[in-house]
Each structure stands twice: as structure tokens, then as C-alpha cells.
Amino acid sequence: MKGIILALSVTIFMFSCTSGNNQIIKKQVKTEPVKAEETEPLKSVKRTIALLTKKTILYADGEVDVYAIYDYSENSDQLIARELYSSQDELIERVSLSYENTLLTRKDSFNADGEQKSYHLYTYNNMGLLESDTLYDKKEKTQTISKYEYDSAGNRTKWSIFNSAETLLGYSTYSFDNNKLIRTYIFSPQRNLEQYNTVEYNQNLQKIEVKSLTSSVELERYCKYSYENNLLVLESYFNSENKLQRQVKYGYDNQGSIIRIEHIDGNGRLKETIEQEYLYKEQKSL
User: Fold this and answer.
1) What proportion of the chain, given as a percentage, has pLDDT over 90?
2) Measured between alpha carbons, how far is 187 from 198 in angstroms, rounded to an integer?
3) Residues sharing a CB contact under 8 Å with residue 225, sequence separation 6 or more, in sequence order
4) Looking at the chain, which terminus has fewer C-beta neighbours within 10 angstroms, N or C?
5) What are phi and psi of 34, to 5 degrees?
6) How far does Cα 60 stand from its chain's mean position?
7) Confidence check: pLDDT of 43 > 50
8) How many CA atoms lie within 13 A of 36 on its CB side?
9) What is each CA distance from 27 to 19, 21, 31, 180, 219, in whole angstroms?
10) 147: nearest Cα among 156, 130, 160
């Protein structure tokens, strides 16, 4: 149960014309027919999208741990598969994704032998927002059910998680100010407040600090976010005694995509590096 609560803590944007006739006309005036206003045809706008194609996780010494390959639909650019490999290029896991129109409806996980491990089924509300996520094991038995609620602006306001018997395991609620998330409350199955998080922003509406506090308003931990050229470059995690616990550093390419993530411990030692590769494509839209 403690794991569920921890998972909950770590943890959706006329006119009218009238005319009249003059009754006294002394001189006939030749009028030109009204020409229809010429309008230019709508022009398509090109935008570049980044498709993540490979993610490699490396140990501190630079040796490869595992890597993942991502495959996309040729027509829609939707992610349809992810394959995880060992450093010896041996398949570990394969995940396939299925869609209805643009909405992800199913995600299947298979082992290296092609045997199914588990799968997720997703449903959506009439706004196209995720409403439920049900996890099944390989025997098609329900494991967990996540349910989501939203406000009229589409902001997620609640996440509840249940077991196979639909017994509540815990839930979180979210508070917003001008569509900015400012607080997250985490509750136990007995609906008691376990902890809550507060979020602060800078003048550019970028997240700069997240604090995690107990129900008795005691600081547990906090994270500070640093930016350069409007890009997140550093996350620094501290405990309640202001001691640095770990950091995450981000590196970008000239397109603004994250290509390198470094995980560093509180003593400044590199623990893990993630490298990411992308395929850039142009999309046309009106």
C-alpha cells in the first residue's frame, strides 16, 4: 500500500448589413455591380515535429545498459511499437500500441519470446481526454484501474486508483490557478490526506520549485528547476534539511529536443546517462 501512495506522490486547452432605397431621384446614377471580395486560398503551414527513434541508457562509465527503438505509423506518425534491447542486442521486451483515430486505446507488452506479459485498455470522455486506464495480466485478469476527472477547461482534477475488485487504493486531487497546476493532494484509501505538493512558477510561467509536505505541513523534500534560453537544464532535489540528494541535467540539440539526460547523485557523481535520437519530419496544416 505504501508503494501505491508513493506512486501517487510521484508523479490535459457576427454582423449583418441593411440597405435602403432613396425615394427622390433627380438623376439616374449608373452603379457598378458589386464585386465579390476576392479571398486568397488558405495556405498550409509547415511545422517540424520530432519523433523519438532511439533511447540509450548508459552506466556511469559509458557502457550501454539497455536501449529502446521506437517505430511509428508511416501515415499518422503515431507511435506503434517500442522494443527494448540489451547491450548485446538481445530483445528484452516489445510494446505495441493500438489507436482509434488519434486516441490510444490499447497497449500490449510481450517478452522476448513473444508471450504476452500484460496489457492496458484506455477509454476517453467526450472531450477526448483519458477517462480510465485498466491494467490486465497475461491471463486477462484485472490488476489495477485508474480513473481520471477533469474540469471544464480540460485540466485533470482527480486521479483514483483501484484494485481488481474496484476497492480504492488511493487518489490524488489537483488544484489550478489560471490553468496552472499549483497544488496536488495525495490521499490514502481511507480518504485521509497523506501529503501534498505545492508548485511555484516564474514570470514566464515555468515551474521553478515543487515542495512536498506532510498533512501536518512539515516539509519532506523539494525540487528546484533551472532554465537557460527558456529550456529546462537542471533539476535539483533536496531533503527537508536542504541537503542535495540528486540532480538531473538536460542537454538539447539545435531543434530544442532533449538529446542527453544525466542523473547525478548528491555528491556530484554521475550515476546514469540517457541519450536520445530523433527523426525530424515536416507536417502541413491549415
Assistant:
1) 80
2) 15
3) 206, 207, 208, 209, 210, 232, 234, 235
4) C
5) -70, 125
6) 28
7) yes
8) 3
9) 20, 14, 12, 66, 88
10) 160
pLDDT score for 46: 81
Over the range 189-216, which residues count as b (16 or more CB within 10 Å of their CB) and which as e?
A: beeeebbbbebeeeeeeebeebbbbeee
- Residue positions counted in the chain: 286
**Strand, coil or helix: what is 9?**
helix
Write the pLDDT tens digit of every residue in 224-262.
Answer: 999 999 999 999 999 999 999 999 999 999 999 999 999
d(CA 176, CA 186): 15
pLDDT for residue 38: 58
| pLDDT for 42 | 61
> What's the Rg (C-alpha) of the chain?
27
- Report pLDDT digits (tens) over 156-177: 999 999 999 999 999 999 999 9
- Dihedral sign from CA coordinates of 256, 69, 90, 107: positive
| Cα dihedral 180/153/187/7 (nearest 10) | -70
Grid cell, residue 198, equals 505545492
C-alpha cell at 44: 498550409
> How far is 19 from 8, CA to CA, in rounded Å?
65
Q: Distance of alpha carbon 102 from its chain centroid, rounded? A: 15
Smallest CA-to-CA distance from 112 within 96, 92, 86 is with 92
Model confidence at 21: pLDDT above 90: no
pLDDT band for position 282 (cuts 50, 70, 90): confident
3-state secondary structure 50-107: EEEEEEEEEECCCCEEEEEEEEECCCCCCEEEEEEEECCCCEEEEEEEEEECCEEEEE
